[in-house]
Automatic annotation (TrEMBL):
Key words of the record: ATP-binding, Nucleotide-binding
An annotated GO cellular component: cytosol
Pfam families, sorted: Asn_synthase
InterPro entries, A to Z: Asn_synthase, Asn_Synthetase, Rossmann-like_a/b/a_fold
An example molecular function term from Gene Ontology annotations: asparagine synthase (glutamine-hydrolyzing) activity
Domain (Asparagine synthetase) ranges: 104-237, 248-348
Protein name in UniProt: Asparagine synthase
Disordered: annotated span: 62-82
GO BP: asparagine biosynthetic process
Superkingdom, taxonomy of origin: Archaea
Organism the protein comes from: Haloferax mucosum ATCC BAA-1512
The keyword Hydrolase is annotated on this UniProt entry: no
């Protein structure tokens, strides 16, 4: 079992409790496979052999990802049967703004401060998510990846200076991208350019972390989904990329995308030689984020309102309020992978030109 003691998982199964106080779990227990409600750990089974499963899809011939919140029977007449055991709670909106903020502050502080820093490094982009995580482990080294002149490297340097932290910069290169792409396709089983662009800087950063002797990497994953960090959430219901009629509803749509994203990120980090640590995805944080009203997610142009309020007691105000770019853009990974594709003859007028380039590197 990854992520939790079997006694906790037994209790969660018996009570059908979707948030039993863990940071996620997946694995075999008794005669079942289980994966937590947010899919925070990947888990795969063999399509035609209900008793064969693995945490790594590469160990299977025809792997299928176990859906989040499900249990799958391994033996007996019901072998191969899936059951949805856990569903993400949908609590009513918290009517008291100060109570809601205080619960978020407590949950975030407790989660980041409870991380064991043994063998730990921090992926540090200079945004509020990674800064809050870093604040909980003041002795852990901070790393940022990016091409020269990229937003993330500059933002991380500013934030590290403000927090009095040493920062190790992993400078990306075209050669590193070309080498890493086939390795990531193998680790993920995906050639989708967006997935590859997102994890490229994380993977190369994690390789450096592992080479420096650390085997665990703390990341800020989940903060944008839980706390309304996306532009399409802020623009709901006017953004066609979300179906919801409210900011809170759009944020919930984003939370529902976490299993696929986390599977990608966890597999990439493990392939690089480190185990991810995601304190902002602990059940206690999830539980406080779900009932937040619209204005504690987005207030005008300000996103992640409640998280920034929680961060104000942990990091300097300049860091708590810092803007953040998506990693593929903030590191220039997307721009430079597109450049490499065009240099290799895959022009933008071609359909899916970057994916065609990615596939060419596998040959």
């Amino acid at each position: 079992m990854h992520g939790a003691d079997t006694s906790v998982v037994h209790r969660a199964l018996a009570d059908r409790d979707p948030l039993p106080g863990t940071a996620g779990f997946a694995g075999g227990i008794d005669d079942r496979l289980v994966r937590d409600v947010l899919g925070r750990y990947p888990l795969f089974f063999e399509r035609d052999d209900p008793e064969t499963w693995s945490f790594d899809h590469r160990n299977l011939t025809d792997p299928v990802s176990l859906p989040p919140g499900h249990a799958r029977r391994l033996t007996g007449d019901s072998a191969g049967d899936d059951e949805r055991v856990w569903t993400l709670p949908d609590p009513p909106v918290e009517p008291n703004r100060e109570d809601a903020l205080e619960r978020v502050r407590t949950a975030v502080a407790e989660s980041v401060r409870s991380v064991d820093d043994d063998g730990l490094a921090v992926a540090f982009s200079g945004g509020v998510d990674s800064a809050v995580v870093a604040a909980g482990v003041p002795d852990a080294p901070c790393y940022v990846a990016g091409f020269e002149g990229s937003h993330d490297v500059a933002a991380a340097r500013d934030a590290a200076d403000a927090m009095g932290r040493d920062l190790r910069v992993v400078e990306l290169s075209h050669e590193a991208l070309e080498r890493a792409v086939p390795e990531l396709v193998d680790a993920l089983g995906r050639t989708n350019p967006m997935d590859i662009q997102i994890v490229l800087p994380l993977y190369l950063l994690a390789e450096r972390v592992a080479a420096d002797g650390y085997d665990r990497l703390a990341v800020g994953q989940g903060a944008d989904e839980l706390f309304g960090g996306y532009a399409k959430v802020a623009k709901a219901p006017d953004d066609p990329r979300v179906a919801a009629e409210t900011v809170r509803g759009a944020a919930r749509e984003m939370i529902q995308t976490l299993p696929d994203q986390l599977e990608r990120d966890v597999l990439a980090l493990r392939a690089a030689g480190v185990e991810p640590v995601c304190p902002l995805l602990h059940d206690r944080v999830v539980e406080t984020a779900l009932p937040l009203p619209d204005d504690l997610l987005v207030d005008g142009d300000r996103r992640k309102v409640a998280l920034r309020a929680a961060a104000s007691g942990l990091v300097p105000s300049s860091v708590a309020e810092a803007d953040k770019k998506a990693v593929q853009y903030g590191t220039y990974a997307s721009r430079e992978l597109d450049r490499l594709a065009r240099q290799a003859g895959f022009k933008r007028r071609m359909d899916n030109h970057v994916e065609k380039y990615v596939r060419s590197l596998l040959e």
